[in-house]
Every structure is written in C-alpha cells, then in structure tokens.
C-alpha cells in the first residue's frame, strides 16, 4: 500500500534568496478569473464551488498544458541559476556512482541485485556468487535487462520486484510498472533460461497482488471486472488461477467489500519446509483480518485487528501487535510486542490460539524489522532512535532465547536480506556522518563481518551530530537530530533544513545521505530531522497520539522543534527552510498555512493538500484511518480547519514554496499539488511548481530524473536560505 515510503529518496536541502533582496519571476500562468469570495475557505463548500477542479483530470489535455507552462517557468528560474549546473553535476555523479553498495538478495544460493547506473537507466537484474559479491569487484551475470526489454517492447518499464516460488526458486513473478505507477504488469520468468516463460502466467496492467499457492497455481487479487475495486482503488476479490487458465476461468476464493481498503493473498515459508498461505483483508489501513487457506477452504485466524504478520521460522508464525491482545485464557500481550504462534496448532484450531511472547519494547523503544534465516529470527529495534539488532532462537519448550549483535552504536540498523537456506543475513548500518556499511551476520554463531562499505561522499570532518528535545504545546518532549558544522555560531544566521514525516507509524532515523552531505552540509548548511508524533519511533502509541482529530499534535510538534531551533539561535525564520513528502507534504502545507512567519522556504514534495477531497483522489480513501473522513461531522470540521488548500488566506505574507509532484503518481496523485499552486497563483502569492512526468510516487523513474529533481530542490533552498 502506501509505505512511503519510503521514503522519497534523496532529501535535498536547499533554498532561495529573500524576495526583498532579488526580484524573481513568479509562476503566474493563465488561469480562470476567480473572485476573492470564491477563494475564501468554506468547510461546507461543494465540489462545484472548487474553481480548480479541472486540474484533477490527471492526464487531461487542459491540465497537462497548464503543467507544461508551469514547469517551463519554474525551470527558467531554477535551471538558469548559476549554481544549478554544479549542483546537478554533483547529484548525478552521486546517484550514478559505481561504488554504491549493491543491495543484495539471497536467491538460489546466489546473490541477486537490481542495479541502475549511467549505462542502465531503467536497470538490470543481475546475480553473482556470495564469494564474488564479497570481493571488491564482483563478476555479475545479467539476468534481465530492463532497458533492452523496454526498447524491444516500446514501453517505459520500471522495476517493481520479483516473487520467486520456494523452494526451487526457479520461476519468478516479475512486476513491471509503466513509468513508476503502483499499477503493474506481472509476468512469469525462468531464472534458469533467463527468459519469460512461454505460455506462463501473465497478468495485464492493473493494481494487483499475487502469491504462489504452489508451483502451478497463483492466488491473485485484481480488478476482475470493470469497477470491481474498493473506494480506495485496490482489489478486494481474490481468485485462484491455475497454470494455462485464462483470467476468466479463475475461481473466486474470497470477496471483501467495496468499503475495505483491499484484500490480498500472502504466502510465507521457512527454511525447514513449513509453508502457510493466507488471504489478508484490510478493512482500514491499520486493521486487518487473516484467513488461512486450507484444503477445506478459508479459516479465519483469531488475531487482533491491529496486528501485522511478520515472518515464519521453525514452524512459528510471527505477528507484530499494534494493540494490546488479551487471549481467551486471560494472557495479555502489550501493544508493540512481537508474538509467535505454533503454525500446526493455528492451522488445527485458528479460533483458540496460544501466543508466545518473543519481544516486548521498553518505554522509549520500538520494534522495527523482522526476518528469518533457516532456524533463527532476526529483529531490529530502536531505543531513543538508536538502532539495535538481535538474534532470537526458538526453544524446544515453545519459548525464545536471544542475544544482541555487536553492531555500531548511535546508528540506524536495518535488515537487507536473510538466507532461509542457511544462517546468513545482511544488515545495513549507517548514520548521518558515517557512510553506509553492509554487514554479514551468522545467526547461528553470532559472528559479524563488514563486506561492503560506501566510500565517503562528502567531507564530514567539520560536522557534528547532536540530539535535542523540544517541548510541544501539550508538554510532550519531541526529540530531534541536528547535523551542523562544529564551528557553528549561535547567532541565528545558519541556513537550516528541517525535515519530518509524522504519519503511518513510519520511523525517521539517522541516515547517510550523500546528496544532503555534498550539496548542503559541505557548503555550510545545517540539517535537522524531527521525530514528531505520528511516526513509529516510540512504538504504536507515538503514532496513535496523532490520529484523525488529534492530528494537530503532530503539527504542533513540528512547530515546537522550529521554535526551539530559533530560541537556541541555531537559525532564524530568515534562514529556516522545511521539507517533507507525501504525508510529509501535507505537513509542509499545514505549516505553510499555520506558521508562515517561521520559515523562508517550504519544499512540498508529492503532497496531499486538499483534505476535503482527498478521499476522492487516487488511493486517498485508504487513509481514512489516519486522517479521518469528511463523512464524519467531527472529523470533517477538523479536516477543514487544517486542510492547506482550504486555508490559504489573502493578505498573508507567505514564504515562496516549491511544490512538486509527478504525473504518474497513482497513489497520492498530482491533483493536490496542481490545485494548491493554481490557488496561490489566483491569489497573487509567489510560488514555484514542478511536475515530473514519470516516476510514480517518487522523484523520478530513473537516476537521471531523480538527480534533476534533487538539484532543483537544492537550488531552491540555496537561493532562499544561503543567499544574502
């Protein structure tokens, strides 16, 4: 679904000079004449009262002509800036560098990797041996060349991953997207012949999910007949499709409801031969039902609605709890815990489960990642936003023992890959100023070795990292990291980028960003990462505190961090810029309208902005659990009070924002950004707008497009925050 993701790539840090210092062209392409009264916020206004509704026609000729004109004006300013060419060259060099760490995947006792560079814009899927991968210069064999495929088929293919049938892992379902959309085409591929399977499984373009039931049968969720999608835009009917059958012959095994977020099949296996196939019904973004696929039909698993399946190891099915769970026998497991179920017992009696505690977080900790090797469980956690990694071993009595892996402190630690044929796993370790390293762990012995290390991409010798806390409006302490020159003067003159996300229980942790480092820190800038509520840094409760009508807490947290930076004279409103994407783009829009006095630059990336119509745009209806719904009077009133599109006011001195989106974003959609810019234009408020044609919910479909977007952002920030 929406895991932002991710999350929005290279977070550029940039800005522009004050409008008082330099006269700048502003975007003011032709738009319908709109009276001031028509632009006045009105919580009760209908769709017909929206003068910019025509920009919601995602690929309409009129809307695209508007986009083309807006892009031209923005590029005329930002690309013509004398700093842009150098910034773009640096960004392109970084993203296309050959010394990047190739992200590994264990497959067929080899290491697979998807790779993009200057010679492979769309990318190649390739493989090598483990010994070869550990060498300084691996010998790679290309398995699938997306550039060649796209050329041959005259398509704009973007890689969306591969699902290979266990245990032989010979046949894989390759997911290909047109230009980066969430919708994709699925084709069966043979790793032995390195060709698509003649007469194999092919699922045409659409939003869909698949799982292997066996080597000749798929479970598929898709739009089987026109209109058979949820209001969120996802499939809710799961069917069984046998090899050689046309789609019309697939047999339905599950049907959710149109009001659900969606339904999807899921298959899990472990290294000891256990396997489970399920159907997951997502009623909301945060609540799900799990149905075991058995020879006698589907059987519902009696787990809490707020629980996520995590892994299968040694015949034990793992669930992460997003709510407290009190079983029928009175045992209680706390929100944020990891529990295991004996798979055989669950299959025999899915309504009377006997969970076992695996991990329970402390008050300042959260579970982050879960994966398994052949006989062990790997988990990563964060304690005060500092990464930890542990190996858990299943005991014969049904319990678990564990030990911590000796990885560097004060780092972010994530699981990259685990080998279910063996006890090996790769872990990624990084921090703001220390380049990313890839560690190979043996989960049986606990041994660790660095196998890859990214060379330094910027001079970090003059910078330091500190962790501070700001006090939010309700007294809650909000942690934030600040990366700054060790010679920084506390005089309010430091150009500063403040970034946050604040939603969907996604944790923002220290990361080594070569683009931020080279294009911002190395030039004397300050970078701040705020761990505001709505995220997952301190577990489900940290996220739940900002749901629906309580969301103002998130926006107050962000403003509190900014005010703390200003009070400590680290920066000032003249030198402070902010940045966020997707849900973080909504955060930027709210801060733009609620606190225009606090910033001089606002970088609004692939955003939601019209919160009175977000449920009607692309996948918006799937996020009602996070934001609330206009169908609920209390929630509608709150959404009207914070909706950036509905709260722009005439006569306010707003900073000039950079608003960017992508045409092929079929998750959030470009509609929000377009309408917001058009409304600013009609009210005579300066802004920059840019729409990437390709790329889906990201900064571009390939490395060149991403480098271009990053360079535009950094040029914008440089002009706004660094110039005199």
Summarize the structure in words.
With 724 residues, this protein is α+β, with helices and mostly antiparallel strands. The protein is built from 14 helices and 39 strands. The strands form nine sheets. The protein has an eight-stranded mixed β-sheet with strand order 32-33-35-34-36-37-38-39, with helices on both faces. Strands 5, 6, 7, 8 and 9 form a five-stranded antiparallel β-sheet that branches. A hairpin with an 8-residue loop joins β12 and β13. α3 crosses α14. The longest helix has 20 residues. It is globular and about 70 Å long. The N terminus is likely disordered.
What's this, in brief?
With 724 residues, the protein is an alpha+beta fold. 19% of the residues lie in helices and 32% in strands.
Give the helices and strands, then pairings.
Layout: H1 36-39, H2 61-78, H3 84-95, E1 105-107, E2 110-117, E3 120-128, H4 130-134, E4 141-145, H5 146-153, E5 157-164, E6 171-178, E7 184-190, E8 195-196, E9 202-206, E10 209-214, E11 217-221, E12 237-242, E13 251-255, E14 262-269, E15 275-282, E16 288-294, E17 297-301, E18 307-313, E19 316-321, E20 325-326, E21 332-333, E22 338-342, H6 343-348, E23 356-359, E24 365-372, E25 377-383, E26 387-394, E27 400-404, E28 412-418, E29 424-430, E30 437-442, E31 448-453, E32 463-471, E33 477-485, E34 496-499, H7 514-519, E35 526-530, H8 540-544, H9 552-567, E36 576-581, H10 583-594, E37 601-605, H11 624-627, H12 633-642, E38 658-662, H13 671-682, E39 688-692, H14 703-722
Parallel strand pairs: 34-35, 34-36, 36-37, 37-38, 38-39
Antiparallel strand pairs: 1-2, 2-3, 3-4, 5-6, 6-7, 7-8, 7-9, 10-11, 11-12, 12-13, 14-15, 15-16, 16-17, 18-19, 19-22, 20-21, 22-23, 24-25, 25-26, 26-27, 28-29, 29-30, 30-31, 32-33, 33-35
Helix pairs in contact: 3-14
């Amino acid at each position: 679904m929406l895991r932002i993701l991710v999350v929005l790539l290279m977070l550029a840090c940039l800005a522009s000079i004050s409008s008082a210092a330099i006269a700048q062209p502003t975007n003011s392409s032709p738009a319908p004449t709109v009276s001031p009264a028509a632009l006045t916020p009105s919580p009760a206004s209908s769709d017909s009262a929206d003068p910019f509704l025509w920009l919601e026609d995602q690929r309409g000729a009129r809307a695209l002509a508007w986009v083309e004109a807006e892009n031209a004006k923005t590029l005329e300013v930002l690309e013509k800036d004398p700093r842009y060419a150098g910034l773009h060259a640096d960004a392109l060099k970084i993203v296309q560098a050959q010394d990047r760490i190739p992200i590994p995947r264990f497959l067929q006792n080899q290491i697979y990797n998807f790779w993009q560079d200057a010679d492979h814009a769309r990318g190649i899927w390739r493989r090598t041996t483990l010994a070869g991968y550990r060498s300084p210069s691996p010998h790679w064999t290309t398995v699938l060349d997306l550039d060649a495929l796209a050329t041959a088929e005259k398509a704009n293919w973007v890689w969306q991953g591969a699902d290979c049938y266990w245990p032989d892992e010979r046949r894989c379902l390759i997911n290909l997207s047109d230009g980066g959309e969430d919708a994709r085409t699925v084709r069966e591929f043979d790793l032995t012949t390195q060709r698509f399977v003649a007469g194999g499984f092919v699922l045409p373009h659409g939003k869909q999910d698949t799982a292997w039931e066996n080597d000749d049968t798929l479970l598929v969720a898709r739009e089987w007949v026109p209109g058979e999608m949820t209001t969120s835009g996802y499939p809710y009917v799961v069917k069984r499709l046998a090899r050689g059958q046309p789609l019309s012959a697939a047999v339905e095994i599950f049907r959710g409801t149109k009001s659900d977020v969606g339904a999807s099949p899921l298959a899990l296996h472990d290294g000891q031969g256990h396997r489970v196939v399920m159907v997951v019904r997502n009623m909301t973004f945060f609540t799900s039902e799990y149905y075991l696929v058995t020879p006698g039909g589907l059987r519902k698993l009696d787990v809490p609605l707020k629980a996520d399946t995590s892994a299968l190891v040694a015949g034990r099915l793992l669930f992460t709890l997003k709510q407290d769970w009190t079983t029928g026998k009175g045992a209680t497991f706390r929100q944020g815990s990891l529990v295991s179920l004996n798979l055989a017992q669950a299959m025999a009696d899915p309504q009377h489960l006997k969970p076992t505690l695996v991990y329970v977080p402390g008050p300042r900790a959260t579970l982050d990642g879960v994966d398994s090797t052949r006989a062990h469980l790997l988990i990563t956690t964060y304690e005060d936003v500092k990464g930890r990694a542990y190996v858990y071993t299943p005991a014969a009595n049904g319990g678990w023992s564990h030990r911590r892996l000796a990885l560097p402190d004060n780092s972010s630690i994530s699981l990259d890959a685990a080998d279910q044929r063996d006890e090996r796993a790769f872990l990624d370790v990084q921090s703001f100023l220390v380049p990313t390293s890839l560690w190979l762990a043996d989960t049986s012995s606990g041994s660790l070795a660095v196998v890859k290390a990214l060379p330094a991409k910027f001079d970090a010798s003059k910078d330091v990292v500190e962790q501070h806390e700001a006090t939010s409006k309700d007294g809650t302490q909000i942690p934030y990291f600040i990366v700054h020159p060790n010679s920084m003067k506390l005089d309010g003159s430091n150009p500063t980028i403040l970034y946050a996300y604040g939603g969907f229980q996604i944790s923002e942790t220290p990361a080594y960003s070569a683009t931020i480092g080279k294009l911002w820190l190395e030039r004397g800038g300050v970078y701040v990462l705020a761990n505001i509520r709505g995220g997952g840094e301190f577990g489900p409760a940290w996220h739940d505190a900002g749901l629906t009508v309580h969301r103002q807490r998130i926006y107050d947290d962000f403003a509190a961090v900014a005010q703390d930076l200003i009070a400590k004279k680290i920066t000032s409103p003249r030198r402070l810029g902010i940045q966020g994407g997707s849900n973080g783009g909504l955060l930027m829009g709210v801060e733009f309208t609620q606190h225009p006095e606090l910033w001089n630059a606002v970088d609004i990336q692939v955003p939601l902005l019209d919160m009175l119509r977000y449920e009607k745009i692309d996948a918006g209806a799937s996020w009602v659990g996070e934001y609330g719904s206009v169908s609920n009077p209390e929630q509608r009133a709150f959404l009207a009070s914070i909706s950036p599109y509905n709260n722009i006011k005439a006569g306010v001195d707003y900073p000039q924002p950079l608003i960017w989106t992508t045409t092929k974003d079929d998750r959030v959609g470009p509609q929000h950004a377009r309408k917001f810019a058009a409304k600013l234009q009609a009210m005579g408020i300066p802004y920059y707008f840019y729409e990437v044609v390709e790329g889906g919910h990201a900064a571009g479909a390939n490395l060149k497009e991403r480098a271009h977007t990053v360079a535009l952002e950094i040029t914008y920030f440089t002009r706004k925050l660094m110039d005199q």
